[in-house]
Specification:
Blueprint lengths: L7 E3 L7 H6 L4 E4 L15 H13 L2 E5 L4 H11 L3 E2 L7 H11 L6 E5 L2 H10 L3 E5 L8 H19 L14
Parallel strand pairs: 1-6, 2-3, 2-5, 3-4, 5-6
Bound molecules: magnesium ion.
């Protein structure tokens, strides 16, 4: 069960305290794309998320995108932001995150994974011992399969709280 437990739960990447992350030794960010930085069905990233990536880079963080999305879409965003990316990463497979660590040239203990899905971003990141931050999906309008996954996510998060692995206050009402 611990392997599914996020290190932090936040509403949005915009709520991440970059300085606190830096102070705890994190130097690189492996970012999910769809529903973390851009709505899965949109082709344009909102300025506030572009600005956030720029701010993270200014802060000194190395940043890359590890996405299960299609190559053309992922590369389009990565190129426009000037950051490395891997598409069709097949998260939660370890090799997806190993690729990210190589791209960042950092050790697992210095890298945080940020994403909206428990079974891909958090589980995969935890498998390699990365710091994992679960955020709320940008869009509530998701595919039927994703909606089903969300149900199981909520169940798991509830169990994590029951087991005392996750503080209930860190979770939003929508999860519990
Ligand atoms: Mg996602």
């Amino acid at each position: 069960m611990e392997i599914l437990c996020p290190s932090r739960v936040l509403s949005s990447v915009l709520d991440i305290d970059l300085q606190a992350l830096w102070n705890q030794g994190i130097r690189g960010l492996i970012l999910d794309l769809d529903n973390t930085l851009v709505c899965w069905d949109k082709s344009v990233m909102e300025d506030r998320f572009r600005e956030w990536i720029k701010e993270a880079k200014r802060h000194g963080f190395k940043v890359c995108i590890v996405s299960n999305g299609l190559t053309k879409r992922v590369n389009q965003f990565a190129l426009s932001m000037g950051i490395p990316a891997i598409a069709k990463a097949q998260k939660p497979r370890k090799r997806a995150f190993r690729w990210g660590l190589r791209a960042l040239e950092l050790a697992p203990e210095n890298v945080a994974v940020i994403g909206d899905q428990l079974f891909t971003d958090v589980f995969g990141g935890n498998r390699l011992g990365l710091y994992t931050i679960l955020i709320d999906p940008l869009s509530k309008q998701e595919l039927r399969t994703t909606k089903f996954v969300r149900k199981i996510e909520r169940w798991v998060l509830k169990k994590l709280v029951e087991k005392g692995l996750l503080c209930s206050q860190t979770l939003k009402d929508r999860y519990l």
